[in-house]
Design a protein that fits this description.
The protein has 470 residues and is mostly helical. It is built from 19 helices and two strands. It folds into two domains: 274 residues, Rhopdopsin 7-helix transmembrane proteins; 155 residues, no CATH class. Strands 1-2 form a two-stranded antiparallel ribbon. It is globular, with a radius of gyration of 25 Å.
C-alpha cells in the first residue's frame, strides 16, 4: 500500500478513536453516547488490525489479524442501531420494545457472532486474499444489514417528526451513507478499492458521532463547540507530540516495520485515552497523592470541576427568550441531574437571574460550583413545595404523586427498578416509598408523573424568576 494511504488510514484511526472516546467520556451513563462511542472505538480497532495485517512479519500473524479485522468492520452496525433506538423519544410507543430487543437480543449475540466469524471459515474464507464469502455469508450479510436498515428507517422517522430538523438531517445523511458503505463492503468483490472505502466509511462514522454529540448538547442545553474543540486540540497535540517522534524515527531510520507500526498505534491510543479521561486519571492520582491532605484534595477537585464544566456552559442562555415547553424540558433535565453536581453545573438554568440574585444575597462567589449548588437548592425547594402540608412524611393518595415522583428518586436517590442499586439504611418513610414504587407504580407511570411534576417545578421557577427580576 502507498505510504500516503497508510498515513490517511492512521489519521482515520486516530480520529475515530478520539471521537468514540470523547462521546463515551461526555456522559457514559447516556446510552446514545455510549453506544455510538463504542461503535467508533470498534471501527478504529478494525482500521488498526487492517494496518497491522498488511505489515505482519509472518503469514500466520497476517491471517490472525485479518480474521480479527473483517468481522470488526461490521460490529459497529450493532452499536449504531442501539444508539439510534435510544435517540427516539421515550414516549414513542415502540421505543421500549426496540430497546429491549436490542439489549436482550442483538447485543448479547454480537460478540459471540464476532468470535464465530473470526474463528471459522463459514462466513469468510480466509484462505483467499482478500477473504471470500463462506457458506454462511448470506446469513451474516442479512444480520449486518437488517439493523442498519432499521436504523435508517428510524432516522427517517425521527427527521420527519421532529422540530427543528437540522441536527437530525445530519444524522439521517450520515446513517444513509454509512449503510451504503456497509453494503459495499459486503459485496464479494474488491470494488471500489477497499482502502478508500474504509476511509469513506470513517468519514461517515465521524459525521454520525458529531450528529450524536450535537443532539446530546441540544438535549442537555449545553454548548458543544468549545468543549469538543478543546478535546480535539489537546488530543491532536499529544498525538503529534508522542506519535510524531515514532513517525520521525520510522522515516529517518527503521522504516515501516511491524513493531514500529504497532508501537505507533498503541502510543496514539494511549495519548488519546490520557487526554480524554484526564479528569478521571487526575482525580485518581490526587486521591492517592493527597490522602493525608483532604482539604488540598478537595480544593483541587473543586478547581478541576470548574475547569472541566466551564466549556459546556451555554453562557448566551436567555431565560426570557425560551418558550414554556423548552423551559419545562430544561427543568426536567436538570431534575434528572440533581444528584450529579458536575452534570447539573452544565444546565443553562444556572444562568437564571434568580440564581444570581440569591448568590448576591448570601455574598457567595459567582462561579460554576456555586451556581450549580444554588440551582440544586432552588430545585429542591420547588420539589418540597409540592408536598402536602401537615400530612406526614409519606402518602399514596393522588395529591402525593408528584411530590413522591420527584423527591424520592431525585432528592433521596431511590432507584426502585434497579436490581443493582443499594438501598440499605433507609428511613421508615423512604423504605415505605421504595416498596410502594416497586409494588404499585409501573416505571412508565413514574416517568409520566415526573414529566408532569417537572412542568409544575418549571412554572414555580418562572414565577420566582419574575419576582427576582421585578
Amino acid at each position: 500500500m502507498p505510504s500516503g494511504l497508510i498515513f490517511l488510514q492512521i489519521v482515520a484511526y486516530s480520529l475515530a478513536l478520539w471521537l468514540g472516546l470523547y462521546l463515551i467520556g461526555r456522559n457514559p451513563a447516556k446510552p446514545p453516547l455510549r453506544y455510538a462511542g463504542l461503535g467508533l472505538v470498534f471501527y478504529a480497532l478494525s482500521l488498526a488490525t487492517d494496518l497491522l495485517a498488511m505489515q505482519a512479519p509472518t503469514a500466520a500473524s497476517a491471517e490472525l489479524l485479518t480474521r480479527l479485522h473483517w468481522p470488526l468492520l461490521f460490529l459497529p452496525a450493532a452499536f449504531w442501531f442501539g444508539a439510534t433506538v435510544h435517540l427516539l423519544p421515550e414516549d414513542t410507543p415502540w421505543q421500549g420494545l426496540l430497546s429491549r430487543s436490542w439489549g436482550y437480543g442483538l447485543l448479547p449475540l454480537a460478540i459471540p457472532f464476532y468470535l464465530f466469524s473470526a474463528g471459522t471459515d463459514l462466513i469468510f474464507d480466509f484462505s483467499a486474499d482478500p477473504p471470500q464469502p463462506g457458506p454462511a455469508y448470506l446469513l451474516f450479510a442479512g444480520l449486518v444489514m437488517l439493523p442498519m436498515l432499521v436504523a435508517l428507517l428510524l432516522a427517517i422517522w425521527a427527521f420527519l417528526s421532529a422540530q427543528p430538523r437540522q441536527p437530525l438531517g445530519l444524522l439521517l445523511a450520515a446513517t444513509l451513507f454509512f449503510t451504503l458503505g456497509a453494503a459495499l463492503l459486503l459485496l464479494p468483490y474488491d470494488w471500489p478499492s477497499r482502502t478508500w472505502l474504509l476511509l469513506g466509511i470513517s468519514l461517515d462514522f465521524v459525521l454520525l458521532g458529531l450528529a450524536i454529540a450535537l443532539l446530546d448538547a441540544l438535549d442537555e442545553g449545553e454548548a458543544l463547540l468549545p468543549d469538543i474543540f478543546l478535546s480535539f486540540d489537546f488530543s491532536s497535540f499529544f498525538v503529534l507530540l508522542f506519535g510524531g517522534l515514532i513517525g520521525l524515527t520510522m522515516v529517518l531510520g527503521t522504516g515501516l516495520t511491524f513493531p514500529m507500526l504497532a508501537l505507533l498505534l498503541v502510543t496514539i491510543a494511549a495519548a488519546i485515552i490520557t487526554q480524554t479521561f484526564a479528569d478521571l486519571l487526575q482525580a485518581a492520582v490526587d486521591k492517592f497523592a493527597f490522602a493525608a491532605f483532604p482539604r488540598l484534595w478537595q480544593a483541587r477537585a473543586d478547581l478541576r470541576f470548574a475547569a472541566s464544566t466551564l466549556p459546556r456552559v451555554k453562557t448566551s442562555f436567555e431565560p426570557d427568550q425560551v418558550g414554556e415547553a423548552e423551559f419545562a424540558r430544561l427543568t426536567r433535565r436538570a431534575l434528572s441531574h440533581l444528584g450529579d453536581l458536575p452534570r447539573l453545573a452544565t444546565s443553562p438554568l444556572t444562568r437564571l437571574a434568580l440564581v444570581e440574585e440569591r448568590l448576591a444575597r448570601r455574598q457567595a462567589r459567582d462561579d460554576t460550583l456555586e451556581r450549580a449548588t444554588e440551582l440544586k437548592t432552588l430545585l429542591i425547594e420547588s420539589i418540597l413545595r409540592l408536598k402536602p402540608q401537615g400530612k406526614g412524611e409519606f402518602g399514596t393518595s393522588e395529591e402525593w404523586r408528584y411530590f413522591n415522583a420527584l423527591y424520592f428518586p431525585y432528592v433521596v436517590g431511590l432507584k426502585p427498578y434497579s436490581r443493582r442499586a443499594e438501598h440499605a439504611g433507609l428511613e421508615p418513610a423512604e423504605r415505605e416509598a421504595f416498596n410502594w414504587f416497586r409494588t404499585y407504580v409501573p416505571e412508565r407511570t413514574l416517568y409520566n408523573w415526573q414529566n408532569a411534576a417537572a412542568r409544575l417545578v418549571a412554572q414555580d421557577l418562572c414565577e420566582r424568576q419574575q419576582e427576582a427580576i421585578n
